[in-house]
Specification:
- The protein is an alpha+beta fold.
- The protein is about 15% helix and about 35% strand.
- The chain has two helices and seven strands.
- The chain has helices spanning about 10-25, 35-45; strands at about 50-55, 60-65, 75-80, 85-90, 110-115, 120-130, 135-140.
- The strands form two sheets. It has a four-stranded antiparallel sheet, with no helix packed on it.
- A hairpin with a 3-residue loop joins strand 3 and strand 4.
- The longest helix is centred in the first third of the chain and has 14 residues, at about 10-25.
- It is flat.
- The mean pLDDT is about 80.
Length: about 160
């Protein structure tokens, strides 16, 4: 059904018609249209994971609260584009039948993720992550500053 043939030619109806046409096509590429559910889930996970970033003279420190998580629940990775990704999942304890039931659930559960673009002077080969007392600290050492180029003196000959 073409909405334009019925006299609806406003931009809103044109956009709606385009969406209907695209949904009907067999070769419809979802990645080109609207953001996926994964995108929204990842965006929400990133927004709900606060972090502190501290720069020291020889390193950078990324500090994130991770109460109640074990080291197996947390992943720290470096992507090819020099991005530090900290992710994982906090799960709720399974309820046993006949046991106590939750009256109120306020603690956040689910996936979490933070992505940081590392500066050019970050040494991605020297990264360590320590989780102590529910606080994850990822330390990224800095590369040493480049040595200044030595001036080369060229002898001038008189011909």
């Amino acid at each position: 059904m073409d909405l334009r043939m019925m006299g609806f030619d406003a931009p809103l109806f044109s956009a709606l018609q385009h969406m209907l046409d695209a949904a009907a096509a067999d070769d419809y590429d979802k990645s080109v249209s609207a953001p996926s559910r994964t995108y929204f889930r990842d965006a929400k996970a990133m927004a709900e994971t606060p972090a502190d970033v501290v720069e020291y003279p020889n390193s950078y420190a990324f500090v994130i609260d991770m109460p109640g998580l074990k080291s197996g629940d947390i992943k720290v990775q470096v992507e090819e584009d020099n991005a530090l990704v900290i992710s994982g999942e906090r799960r709720r304890e399974e309820e046993k039948e006949g046991a106590a039931k939750y009256v109120r659930m306020e603690r956040r559960v689910g996936k979490f993720m933070r992505k940081f673009v590392l500066p050019e002077n970050a040494n991605t080969d020297k990264i360590c992550a320590v989780c102590q007392d529910g606080v994850l600290t990822v330390t990224v050492e800095k590369l040493p500053p480049p040595e200044p180029k030595k001036l080369k003196t060229i002898e001038v000959k008189i011909a």
